[in-house]
Amino acid sequence: MSADWWNELIKSVPEASKLRNHPLRDIPLLDRLYARVTVSVNEGWQPRAGPSQLPREPSSPFPYVVESDEEVERVGSSRKSASRGKGKAIASSSKKGNPDKWDRLTTAIEDQGKFLKGGREAFETLNPFSVAVCMQELVKMTKLDHDSELYWAAIDYLASDESGRQIFMSLPNEAEKIKFLERKTGKEVAIWYYQNLLKVIALLIENECLDPNRDRQLMRIDRGRGWRHTMQMINGHDQECYETLRMHQETFRRLCSRLKNDYGLRESRECGLEEAVAMCLETVAHDEVQRTIATHYQRNQETVNRKFHEVLDALVRMSRDIIKPEENELRQVNPILSSDRRYHPFFSACIGALDGTHVSVRVGSQKKEKYWNLRKQHPTMNVLAICNFNMEFIYTYVGTPGRAHDSKILTYCAQHDEYFPTPPEGKYFLVDSGYPNRKGYLAPYRRIRYHPHQW
Question: What keywords tag this UniProt record (predicted)?
């Protein structure tokens, strides 16, 4: 509106100065609140053309344009009262057709929409913190590259945050506006991160140049020595393989194949399966330490330790399928006994022999007293084992400290171990004098002299 128009309006209506100084600030909200509310021809007027120029027809069938249910009821009640007052005259006038009524109604609606649209445009133009004004200010900034990520991130931020637009427009200079946008869009953090990353890289390069160990040499440089040593034992002389690994070449090949196919042992990129098994067997056979095996096979000590435990875990899984009695073995007479007159029929009910053995171990100082064997005078582990007459182990119990007595280990295994082969009714195991003579276990009679050379 022009200044003259406002001055005339303020003279007639002094309160209009408030609307001029403080225009409407939320046109979309007013649009949502009053877009569907209209007034009658008698009460309303068009804001751009002054009072309404629509002809006033009291007999118009559309005195109000209504939307709510209350207005429908009010219009219906007014019609009924008017019809009762005027009688047939009103009824006859309502039947007259008015071909221009829809045109007038459509024009009024269009004028209302144009008014709202113009109000929005005026609001966007007069609002100093609108998106359009902020975009104009953003385009005018010469220190901001319009092809940078900060420019596009700033557009998204200013379009979505009204308070941010107000702060942006209130900043005094361009440098502070750029700094504000960097902080709000997260670009400042990215710039700080890359700057510090460059500093860290520079420090690493400097430390690498100053590292006193940068010229140190590799300790084990013959990478293929372990594999060549393993292949020499497998394909060389059989006696050399037996002396090193305590098994023949064919047995070693079958062991490697079974561990790979049935028990999940896998080779790595740097160490083959046969070499890993050979390192484990040589460690156990000769009681070697990791450092010696690492030097012999030219491997890192960590590699030797890891491969040793991988092979050991596979051997433990295999032992569950091997060290156990066969089906019905404990209930049948062994053919070796039945074919030897020295034993049959005297030992026809015997199903095997049971005994304990002490194996030397290395333990820490805090466990040394627990594993100390008074008779052997060094730490040991008491292992309980049962074998049949085919010289095959059918049960072992490993891990008991050397101070434990043989009879206590047998009692514990018979009562708590579910895999212990309990002798069936009428059968027994042969035991030595360290065990009691009881049902299921036959020990030598005390104070009786035996002649082992006769057996």
Answer: Hydrolase, Metal-binding, Nuclease, Nucleus
What number is the average pLDDT over the span 349-366? Answer: 91
AA letter at 174? E
What are the distances in angstroms from CA 333 to CA 30, 337, 339, 388, 443?
105, 7, 10, 11, 20
What are 83's two structure tokens? 């019809």
Mean pLDDT computed over 139-164 = 82
Question: Which stretch of DSSP H or E encloses residue 45?
Answer: strand 45-46
| Alpha-carbon gap, residue 280 to 174, rounded angstroms | 73
Q: The tokens 């960590």 sit on which residue?
A: 302
Domain boundaries, the chain: 20-126, 131-189, 228-322, 335-454
Task: Measure the CA–CA gap between 277 and 260, rounded to whole angstroms.
Answer: 11
pTM value surpassing 0.85:
no
Q: Any long-range contacts for 281-289 (C-beta under 8 Å, 24+ apart)?
A: 281/245, 281/246, 281/247, 281/252, 282/244, 282/245, 283/308, 285/244, 285/245, 285/246
Decide if 273 contacts 255 (C-beta within 8 A). Answer: no
> Do 433 and 416 form a contact (C-beta atoms < 8 A)?
no
